[in-house]
Write a structure and sequence with these properties.
Order of helices and strands: EHEHEEHHEHEEH
Helix content: 40-55%
Length: about 160
Amino acid sequence: MSKSTVLIAYYTRTGNTEKMARAIARGVEAAGLTARVKEVEACTLDDLRAAGAIVIGSPTYFSNVAWPVKKLIDESIALYRGHELRGKVAGIFTSSGTARDAQDCLRMLELAWGLHHQMQVVKPGLVRVDGSPEDQTEREGQAYGEKIAQAIKQG
């Protein structure tokens, strides 16, 4: 992957988080960059290492990320030791039952990627709350993808 490739890794059970990932990818591509959408279970440390930017999405479970996302975060400690993700642009997103729980989930992702890995997290992260209209999810996802692309271009 090149510096202009954005890895969008997600976990989904009902399909909502995947829809968000694909909308973000459309925004990234509309801004002229390459998006690589991948289920988080298939994502490797080499994928994280090679990506120019990383966007991670999870449904919110009890104000936190889903286990497969947490597993990737835990495995990323191997990259933390060598500061291999430091300075890369990161995006975070969640699909949740409530806005409050969603903010807690985003905070967990921000701690992992922003605080610990010292990545440049594009804020605010993207939230989809149950019952949100599909066209709103699409619009907001594309806008967030464009915002991530802008952060990459600005360096």
